[in-house]
Amino acid sequence: MKLKGAEILLQCLQKEGVDTVFGYPGGAVLPIYDALYKSEIRHILSRHEQGAAHAADGYARATGRVGVCIATSGPGATNLVTGIATAYMDSIPLVCFTGQVGTSLIGRDAFQEADITGITLPITKHNYLVEKTEDLARIVKEAFYIARTNRPGPVVVDLPKDVMEKEIDFEYPEEAINIRGYRVVKGYNSNQVITAVDYIQKARRPVIYAGGGVISSNAAEELRELAEKRKIPVTTTLMGMGGFLGNSYLSLGMLGMHGTRYANYAIGECDLLIAVGVRFDDRVTGKIDTFAPHARVIHIDIDAAEIGKNVEVEVPIVGQVKEVLAAINQRLEAIESEELNEWHETIHRWKEEYPLRYGDSSEGRIMPQHVIEEVYSLTQGEAIICTEVGQNQMWAAQYYHYKHPRSFLSSGGLGTMGYGFPAAIGAKIACPELPVVDIAGDGSIQMNIQELGTAVQYRLPIIICILNNHFLGMVRQWQGLFYGGRYSYTDMSHQPDFVKIAEAYGAIGRRIKEASQVREALEEALKVKDRPVVLDFWVEREADVYPMVPPGGSLMNMLGGD
Ligand SMILES: Cc1ncc(C[n+]2csc(CCOP(=O)(O)OP(=O)(O)O)c2C)c(N)n1
């Protein structure tokens, strides 16, 4: 059958099971858009390519499938960059298609030419420039394979216009993928599994430290089994939220800079640290040589390069987290009831003494933490919560109890303001039956607020809760603590009217200034089924996120919350 490159591309996407793509058209991708016109694949038109990339990323995080986005050449492609880097830092599977000028023009500074494979080299798992239509199907197949296997990540495929226009005889290549230098990790070292089991059985003060790898490996069930079988307390990273039941008696919540005191104390006192699908990020470890000083460390990860990168590891196990945990569980004896009593008593005491808490709102002022608690109370952990970046993100991590993997979507590694709302669009498209809430700051929401157009066009009932403190709150908090209260350029008093913005786009907008109205506003918003709702909560202006480990400090020395 004779097909154009663009038609081949869409056939390949269907073979990969892609039903939705997020994108924005332009000259170089016109052949693809023309083919999309009569395709079964659903295309969601974002309002900015960064929005398309984050939406594809949100779709991927919510489903575990590969997210797909399309941008035109030059500025379209460069607008994807932050979205690609965000996915890369959080190991999210994405395939991004970018238009490119015709092959004869490449390297000549042609109109809308950008060297996107060069630009994205350090922020992609792999990238391709397709030079011949004949190579296209193989490359697309490889791109999806690379994006989703081993440690997932983004792949860019750059598509010159003439490659998309050329017609060739086409048959879908069915042969198995064989990429030189890239092997899918299979199995694990069973001796190390045996050692790990021995360590776990001997430990008196064990802690599990679980990260995003638990979620990408679909290993939450195996993690729960391990924790319950041996009654091991579990702390998760920001990326690991939802990987373990947040309100379980074994849950310690998040650790690290804005983790709970009891999680950080447990890390400081434990004799065994079982690190699962984590990378010992500096926001987690604080001062590295004081991190888990009394513990032997077992590290389970798909990526061998992560093991021993930041901390010394006694038992390094490279493998699929799900498979390794299952193997450990199989050999592990269930614990005798009294064995870890002392450890649990200590942790219980810390939990009683240092719960997460915040100041009362006086005169009806809204405390931002209270808004999150109400969102939890009304949705009971059965929603997808997306966040922007800053204090809003940390409160969403602290005060909502995540029950399910893929229910908390947040830019952890890159910390991208403007991530949450477009990610919520991707999540809502993927999971229309679930409530989707974006917890936002007044600064962050303005970074991709134009995506209200997208959400309205596709009738997506996403709730955006702006915790509006009229500040770039997290930066102001640091200025308050570490720069003598000099709030240099973090005052955001000059703001648009968010209610009017919502209405101008065709969404619902509401401003809430009284604590007594928070719950009712959320209840009303949850009833809306056909359009986004922007709730502009005017919260206490100078509320801070506590507890906090000062940057580079030891986890044992936290500020606040005591
Ligand atoms: C794109 C981007 N630019 C700058 C920053 C640095 N930054 C981190 S948090 C923050 C303040 C966020 O303010 P806001 O969105 O109002 O949220 P709040 O902290 O008040 O909840 C800034 C500027 C960032 N993370 N991302």
Automatic annotation (TrEMBL):
Gene Ontology biological-process annotations: isoleucine biosynthetic process; L-valine biosynthetic process
CDD domains, per the entry: TPP_AHAS, TPP_PYR_POX_like
Domain Thiamine pyrophosphate enzyme N-terminal TPP-binding: 4-117
Cofactor: how and how many bound: Binds 1 thiamine pyrophosphate per subunit. Binds 1 Mg(2+) ion per subunit.
InterPro entries: Acetolactate_synth_lsu, AHAS_TPP, DHS-like_NAD/FAD-binding_dom, THDP-binding, Thiamin_PyroP_enz_cen_dom, Thiamin_PyroP_enz_TPP-bd_dom, TPP-bd_CS, TPP_enz
EC number(s) stated in the UniProt entry for this protein: 2.2.1.6
GO molecular function, one term: thiamine pyrophosphate binding
Catalysed conversion reaction: 2 pyruvate + H(+) = (2S)-2-acetolactate + CO2
Pathway: Amino-acid biosynthesis; L-isoleucine biosynthesis; L-isoleucine from 2-oxobutanoate: step 1/4; Amino-acid biosynthesis; L-valine biosynthesis; L-valine from pyruvate: step 1/4
Keywords per UniProt: Amino-acid biosynthesis, Branched-chain amino acid biosynthesis, FAD, Flavoprotein, Magnesium, Metal-binding, Thiamine pyrophosphate, Transferase
Ranges for domain Thiamine pyrophosphate enzyme central: 195-328
Domain of life: Bacteria
Cofactor(s) needed by this chain: thiamine diphosphate; Mg(2+)
Thiamine pyrophosphate enzyme TPP-binding domain sequence ranges: 389-537
Keyword Flavoprotein applies: yes
Top EC category: transferase
GO CC terms: acetolactate synthase complex
Keyword Transferase applies: yes
Classification via NCBIfam families: acolac_lg (TIGR00118)
PANTHER family assigned: ACETOLACTATE SYNTHASE CATALYTIC SUBUNIT, MITOCHONDRIAL, THIAMINE PYROPHOSPHATE ENZYMES
Family of this protein: Belongs to the TPP enzyme family.
Designated name of the protein: Acetolactate synthase
